Amino acid sequence: MAKIAPLSGFPEFLPSQRIVEQQVLDTVRSVFELHGFASIEVRAVEPLEHLLRKGEIDKEVYVISRLQAANDGSADSEGATPGRWGLHFDLTVPFARYVLQNAGQLDFPFRRYQIQKAWRGERPQEGRYREFTQADIDIVGRDTLGFHHEVEVALVMSEVLTALPIPPAVIKVNNRKLAEGFFRGVGASDPEAALRALDKLDKVGAEQVARLLVSEAGLASEAAERCLRLAQISGDDEIVVERVRDLGVQHPLLDQGLDELSAVVAGANERRPGVLVADLKIARGLDYYTGTVFETELQGFESLGSICSGGRYDSLASDGKVTYPGVGLSLGVSRLLVPLLAAGYITSSRSVPSCVVVGVADEAERHASEQVAASLRARGISCEVAPSAAKFGKQIRHADRRGIPFVWFIGADGAHSVKDIRSGDQTAADPATWNPPPDDLHPRVTRADGASTTDRTSAPNKEGTS
Amino acid sequence: MAKIAPLSGFPEFLPSQRIVEQQVLDTVRSVFELHGFASIEVRAVEPLEHLLRKGEIDKEVYVISRLQAANDGSADSEGATPGRWGLHFDLTVPFARYVLQNAGQLDFPFRRYQIQKAWRGERPQEGRYREFTQADIDIVGRDTLGFHHEVEVALVMSEVLTALPIPPAVIKVNNRKLAEGFFRGVGASDPEAALRALDKLDKVGAEQVARLLVSEAGLASEAAERCLRLAQISGDDEIVVERVRDLGVQHPLLDQGLDELSAVVAGANERRPGVLVADLKIARGLDYYTGTVFETELQGFESLGSICSGGRYDSLASDGKVTYPGVGLSLGVSRLLVPLLAAGYITSSRSVPSCVVVGVADEAERHASEQVAASLRARGISCEVAPSAAKFGKQIRHADRRGIPFVWFIGADGAHSVKDIRSGDQTAADPATWNPPPDDLHPRVTRADGASTTDRTSAPNKEGTS
Prior knowledge:
2 copies of one chain form a homodimer. In chain A, 52% of the residues are buried. Helices cover 35% and strands 22% of the residues of chain A. Chain A has a 9-stranded mixed β-sheet. The radius of gyration of chain A is 27 Å and the shape is elongated. By secondary structure, chain A is an alpha+beta fold. At the A-B interface, helix 1, strand 1, strand 3, helix 3 and helix 4 of A face helix 1, strand 1, strand 3, helix 3 and helix 4 of B. Strand 3 of chain A pairs antiparallel with strand 3 of chain B, so a sheet runs across the interface.
């Protein structure tokens, strides 16, 4: 058989990398759950017309069809005829459907998290994949949703980002009303077009954006200039508001947006200083946000784009009678981890969960080794029994290659001992009472700068009670 | 918008059901990791020709294509042209590809577990879905793999099944060599056809199977009769071997198969009495097993079919030079949970992780409630702050509807108290030291007979050290 190559855009991890991903996902889940978010999972597929409602995303959708449907000509009683179903490209669209479908059985405000894969048929590049994992939180109300939740979701995600073994991340925030009010205030005939133009600032540069603001959004060139100056404003205090006011634009929506932006920045930074920075060039493209919008940059990995984005939507879903407003943030787990793992920025101390290899002196005595293993497992110590009664050197190499720190020996006299293969120290041990150092119990995930996270199930809560 | 109906064959859970699934998956993972199995995840898609290699499965495969590929006529540089990729229908086929692709970076024997979704375009029915979650373990060797691993995987899965909040399950075992040797011994011209015929025993009955054994496998009717008597043999001791011998069939493969079957049954039952029962009608259809085969029946839910199946394959994968033998078992998580949850057999005490709702007396005092919540979270207590400063009765109902046991109050005098809304008891409490009873810390999953599992991260080890 020919050498099997990986499939571009569909990243897969080796076992030691997967351990990093598992610990990251455990931490994410733990923080979400400490804040009372409930997990849901949605099916991978949605009706195509539901996926395409958003507009320009259509070319990125993977459509599914039954291989035999074309051959046997069968219509499918469940409606899954070829071409009618696609894989979801994010977690928000299926979540909106889930809320409408189950509204009668959910309690609002509904706080949910969702850690799942999504698929997009786009051309793969660093940080962008055809199959990727996202971790979303959203809070959804029925008819109304308190503004304080906009501060809350940013604080929860900030706690996640701080707990993860990743470079520092800065959550940047803007407000759609502020932008739309400003564009209307300077005379834009099409504020949506102005938003789309500004969203391209990092890609095409100020000069080209100015041209688009004139040609697409119907702005005078002086007005376009003021929009570009708006986009340059950032900061985490009241000076941001003053600098916007200095641009001399008046519009009621602008006032409302400025109030909301200051309230979010002040509310978040009061609880976790420095967590939010206002950045008035954040646009979030064509997404359907109606107020606060968030993007997150990873220091030293800015080229990845935003690793955590979201915002407020006045209508996440609606059944015609009831409207469900929401606010949420989506962490791009693959976008974050695939490049950091490839760069060796985060590593795991071993490629298996095992803390101990229990040696086998003689195949006829395997039963004794199995008993040691059962005794260790009963106390939560992960272990495996050597696959064969090979020479001790080979059994030690079996552990060493996997990064397993300890090998257990049963001597010819029946005496038990355990060897730390890193130091070579070998000591007598009792399977009923021996414990590894707490740091060795589970694989240790370390980031390049030497910081390590050893607690795999609960994340530190940095907020404290102050 | 019209009422949204669920999609047949794509089960989704409500939040309280999802909590049950999460605890089940946590237990499964915990047992697998205690036994040193490393997690991997594979991409959802495989080349179609790889998926179809097994034969008759082809009509069940979902093919994916980019929606725009047909429109823009673009050839895809990564080869993902329409119709060439399908969603995997199990976890074994992609795992075999993963082993070959990464063989140089894996250590053998490679012990891996995999908890993922798979997709089949088949007609949905109870226990069979178009999207479903499986939890697999496999041990894969390079060139060789010790026989004791066949006992090991059965013991690990038995430990999982015992730890889960499900009805008792019996793992049944047979051996392909035994069956093939027997068929050859009675003169079958096509032992594969005989196996296929016997696999239909439960569906079509003995009379029809006898006819198939004559017409398809080339057996005389007396020989077909002996095959049917073989299929009736079951038990967990040496009498099984005697009863096969009593049928008077001779073949070297039969001898080998009988030896292996007794060794697996005796080896497993020595460590966990009653865990394995030999059942000579187990065939595992067209799967590519070459020795031991397993199926598992859930008592009281036999109609679901096997909830945990697997066996030994002498060649899980091969690159032409190196062959990778393996043995594994696959637990059908959806097949197990969807019917049990629908039947109300397993329930969760709440629909959210929150143990406490921190009340808000006045929107201006929300900050005080946030501080209480932060203090509780810092000690691992999941909580949420009331969404609005509603009347206390409404805040209690917010907790009650979600099954949250405690509501925290801050009085007008600044005094803190916590109310158990089940008993109505309200006591003074300090956010820095108060703890809920351990049973209330996490949602409690209970099965219909009243047994409960409260420890969500580690499964009991029933094996002990005896």
